[in-house]
Design goal:
The protein is mostly beta strands. Helices cover about 0% and strands about 45% of the residues. β8 and β9 form a beta hairpin. It is elongated and about 60 Å long.
Amino acid sequence: MKVHVKEDDRVFVLRGKDKGKSGKVLQVIPAKNRVIVEGVNIVTKHKRPDQRTQTGGIIHQEAAIDASNVMLVCPKCKRPSKVGRKVSNDGEKVRFCKACDATIDVISKGRK
C-alpha cells in the first residue's frame, strides 16, 4: 500500500491522544500503513536485563500510528496540506502541495 509521507517529512497529527502535535517521520511501514513520528505516541516498555545489556528498566519510545492520522506540513507555506502527485514538464514524477501548488520533492525520474 502506498503511503503519502516519506521518512524525514514533517507531519501534523490529526487524531489520537497527540492531536495537534507535529514531528519528523522516523520510519514508514507501508505494509501496515503506519508511520512512527518523533515525539508522538510515546509508550512505556519494561525491559529486562540480558547478557549483552546488563541494565534493564523502564524505556519510553515512539510507537506507530496510522498514516491516515497524519498530514504533511508543506515546506513552503508551513501549514498542513494534502499531497498530490503529478508528472512535471521535465517528465519527472513529483509530489506537490495542494494548498499552494509548490513542489515538495521528486519521486522518480520518468521516461524520456
